[in-house]
Each structure stands twice: as structure tokens, then as C-alpha cells.
Design brief:
Radius of gyration: 24 Å
Distance between the termini: 64 Å
Order of helices and strands: HHHHHH
Structural class: mainly alpha
Number of domains: 2
Number of helices: 6
Number of strands: 0
């Protein structure tokens, strides 16, 4: 009896796997990888270009300030592109390359804010903005603290 049930289960699983394979769209893995590479690379190149331009325009500014100014520029462009609807097209084309930490995070914040703008500036836009930012900041603080403690105790034992 158990053998018959096992055979039925195996046959059902084979049919199911055949069905899943038939309806699952094939992905162009290499094409997706290439698009992510060039979109992410272009984003980083644009960031570097802004840094070089700022360095030419403001030669007296320190390197850290130039880096921060370039980051702010990329964030502003990502938010502007999100608001104008361009970022979705970039995301569809570039996949993971469009979600570099700084521009992807800016897009996520702006998208969440825009979605609830009908609720008002405070209860809609601002609250949703912080609903995305809050968990990221909390996780960043918590996990960096955990890593710092592990490092501290590991170096105390090792060093």
C-alpha cells in the first residue's frame, strides 16, 4: 500500500515539475548580467564624473566633501528620476545594476513616499518615507554593533 502511494506521489511530482518547466519563462541570464553590469557601471561612472567636475569647480574643498557632494547629487537624480517615472524603466532594463545602494535606496524612499502622497504631507509622504528608512537604519545600527562587539571580543582574545 505504501509503495503504491509513493509511486503516485512521484508521478504527481513529475507531472507538476513538467508543468512548472513549461510555464516558467526562460530568463536570459547572460543578458541580465550584462545589463546589470553596464547600468551599475554607468551609474558609478556618472558619480565619478560629478566628483571630478566638483573637484575642478571647487579645488579648495576636501576629498570627503567632494565624495559627499557627489553622493548627494546621485541621490537627487535618483529621486528626480523616480518622480518622473524614469527610474522604473532603468530598473527594468538594468535589473540589479539599478539598485546600487545609494540610488536604489533613494528610489525606494521616493517610491514609498509618492505612493501615499494623497494622505497628506505628514501622514502620507513623511510617514511612508520613514517606514522605509527606519528599518534600514535600525538594522544598520544593530548589526554593525553586533559585528563591533564580535570584533572587540575576538581581538581581545586573539590580540
Amino acid at each position: 500500500m505504501a509503495n503504491n502511494a509513493d509511486t503516485k506521489v512521484r508521478e504527481r511530482n513529475k507531472r507538476y515539475n513538467k508543468y512548472v518547466k513549461a510555464v516558467t519563462p526562460s530568463s536570459a541570464f547572460i543578458k541580465s548580467l550584462f545589463n546589470a553590469f553596464w547600468v551599475g557601471g554607468l551609474t558609478c561612472t556618472i558619480g565619478q564624473l560629478f566628483g571630478d567636475i566638483y573637484r575642478l569647480i571647487f579645488p579648495d574643498l576636501g576629498e570627503k566633501f567632494i565624495v559627499n557632494l557627489s553622493s548627494i547629487t546621485l541621490i537627487t537624480i535618483a529621486i528626480l528620476f523616480t518622480g518622473l517615472g524614469f527610474y522604473d524603466a532603468i530598473g527594468r532594463k538594468g535589473g540589479a545594476g539599478s539598485f546600487l545602494p545609494i540610488t536604489g535606496f533613494a528610489n525606494a524612499m521616493a517610491s514609498a513616499s509618492m505612493e501615499f502622497k494623497t494622505e497628506g504631507l505628514i501622514l502620507g509622504t513623511s510617514v511612508k518615507l520613514f517606514s522605509v528608512v527606519g528599518p534600514v537604519i535600525v538594522n544598520g545600527v544593530v548589526w554593525s554593533s553586533v559585528v563591533a562587539l564580535i570584533y572587540y571580543f575576538a581581538m581581545g582574545v586573539i590580540g
